[in-house]
Design the sequence.
């Protein structure tokens, strides 16, 4: 486990800012204690200082996970968000998409969201903007990337993809053995 | 009674005397083997086990040791003796018994680089005669060293080779070459020692070579650059010069549990920088805003004609309460929208 280098921090923040914008500040500067990001096995974990100090007692090869996994760095040093980060990102989301109950299941199986399944979408959403996906009952379901702007969404045909799937809470079951 | 006692006493005294001064002749069933060179004697006689195991063990051992020592000393007296400073000294012969050595046998010397190479190539040492015939002096001279035959350092004239620079000092050149060879040999010798003792070979640096390769030149440049008093800190750089590769810079990470507040501050600063890098005017955003306004404008116009409302697929979002009708329901109608779409797709 080690702190992130400047380069890695930048890569991660750029990815996070796609979803929560400048609200990253609220993750770093928390009133309820010191929280930090740490890299372990190419994965970024978000944890409190207390947990970190406890985790130092565990040897590196035995440590599977600590705190919350936010995502991982690929071999090409790109950052990929994991679904485990959802709980921390959902409260600060800037752009949201609500999915109709009928296509919720389809999204949770890892499919893109079609226009027909789109319940609501935040006004002003840009193309390729990172969005958080909610059910109509405001339960966060996952992340995605807007394939169309809000304007374009009105005009496209019902089978057109509106939001690209990135991660969903179905992964907790689908990729149970790789999530940490 | 009295006489008896006197006889007894005398006999006892005699016995005690005999005990004190034991005879120098010792009888043994088997003769002992001696190695007077090492003052060594082997007793091959059987031990009396009854005595040995019983309570007279100490006495038995002491008498055995005394007898055998007596025999060894008898043997020493048979050797030629001489008198040195009032002391009689026996001259010991060479020892015949082989004793194991005290220290482990020395390991063979690790081969030098040349010896390794020669073994690989099957090169064997050839014995050359020490003396060779010198045609010039008409006499036998040593093959190498001082006053050697065909001594090229003693030449009073050197022919300038056709390819060489005529102004070059051939004597100086020869001297310099010799010095370099000597230095190189010394360096190799030290390297062999270092390798034999498994010490890390000291920084190789650059060796004089006749023709430097590109890599060697690059190494020479990078070495020369950092060979200043400031370790190259103020060294000027060429335009477009690449940093030297393999300079040995290691990755350094911050400590796992370091200063949390400074870590936080660093991340906040990074966020600030990232924020300031964003353009003030996001063109796509501006265009989208314009499109949206035009949309709502035309929708308001259309609303006058058609009072029908389709709420499905409405996008309230951050609805500004403009009284905007459902976008989807109206979509197929507005012909005036086509140019806007194109604008959006730009």
Sequence:
């Amino acid at each position: 486990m080690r702190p992130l280098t400047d380069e890695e921090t930048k890569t991660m923040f750029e990815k996070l800012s796609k979803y929560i914008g400048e609200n990253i500040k609220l993750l770093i500067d928390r009133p309820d204690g010191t929280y930090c990001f740490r890299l372990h096995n190419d994965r970024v974990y978000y944890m409190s200082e207390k947990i970190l100090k406890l985790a130092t007692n565990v040897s590196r090869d035995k440590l599977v996970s600590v705190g919350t996994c936010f995502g991982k760095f690929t071999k090409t040093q790109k950052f990929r968000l994991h679904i485990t980060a959802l709980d921390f990102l959902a409260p600060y989301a800037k752009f949201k998409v609500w999915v109709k109950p009928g296509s919720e299941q389809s999204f949770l199986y890892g499919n893109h969201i079609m226009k027909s399944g789109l319940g609501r979408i935040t006004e002003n959403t840009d193309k390729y903007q990172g969005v958080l996906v909610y059910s109509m009952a405001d339960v966060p379901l996952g992340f995605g990337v807007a394939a169309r702007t809000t304007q374009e969404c009105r005009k496209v045909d019902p089978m057109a993809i509106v939001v690209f799937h990135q991660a969903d809470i179905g992964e907790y079951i689908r990729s149970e053995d790789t999530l940490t | 009674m009295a006489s008896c006692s006197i006889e007894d006493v005398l006999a006892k005294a005699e016995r005690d005397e005999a005990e004190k001064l034991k005879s120098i002749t010792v009888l043994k069933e088997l003769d002992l083997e001696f190695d007077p060179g090492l003052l060594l004697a082997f007793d091959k006689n059987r031990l009396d086990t009854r005595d040995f195991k019983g309570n007279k063990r100490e006495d038995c051992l002491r008498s055995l040791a005394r007898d055998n020592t007596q025999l060894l000393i008898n043997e020493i007296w048979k050797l030629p003796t001489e008198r040195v400073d009032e002391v009689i000294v026996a001259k010991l012969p060479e020892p015949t018994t082989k004793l194991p050595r005290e220290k482990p046998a020395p390991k063979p010397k690790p081969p030098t680089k040349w010896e390794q190479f020669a073994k690989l190539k099957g090169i064997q040492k050839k014995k050359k005669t020490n003396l060779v015939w010198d045609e010039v002096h008409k006499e036998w001279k040593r093959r190498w060293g001082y006053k050697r035959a065909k001594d090229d350092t003693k030449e009073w004239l050197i022919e300038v080779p056709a390819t060489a620079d005529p102004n070059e000092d051939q004597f100086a050149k020869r001297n310099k070459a010799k010095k370099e060879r000597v230095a190189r040999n010394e360096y190799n010798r030290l390297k062999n020692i270092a390798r034999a003792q498994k010490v890390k070979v000291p920084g190789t640096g650059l060796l004089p070579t006749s023709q430097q390769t590109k890599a060697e030149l690059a190494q020479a440049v990078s070495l020369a650059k950092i060979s200043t008093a400031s370790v190259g800190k103020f060294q000027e750089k060429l335009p477009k010069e690449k940093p030297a590769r393999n300079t040995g810079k290691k990755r350094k990470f911050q400590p796992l549990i370091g200063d949390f507040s400074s870590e936080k501050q660093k991340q906040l600063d990074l966020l600030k920088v990232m924020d300031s890098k964003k353009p003030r005017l996001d063109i796509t955003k501006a265009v989208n805003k314009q499109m949206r306004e035009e949309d709502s404008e035309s929708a308001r116009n259309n609303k006058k004609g058609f009072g029908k409302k389709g709420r499905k697929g409405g996008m309230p979002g951050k609805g500004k309460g403009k009284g905007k009708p459902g976008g989807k329901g109206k979509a197929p109608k507005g012909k005036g929208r086509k140019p806007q779409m194109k604008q959006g797709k730009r």
Q: What stands out?
A: The radius of gyration of chain B is 54 Å.
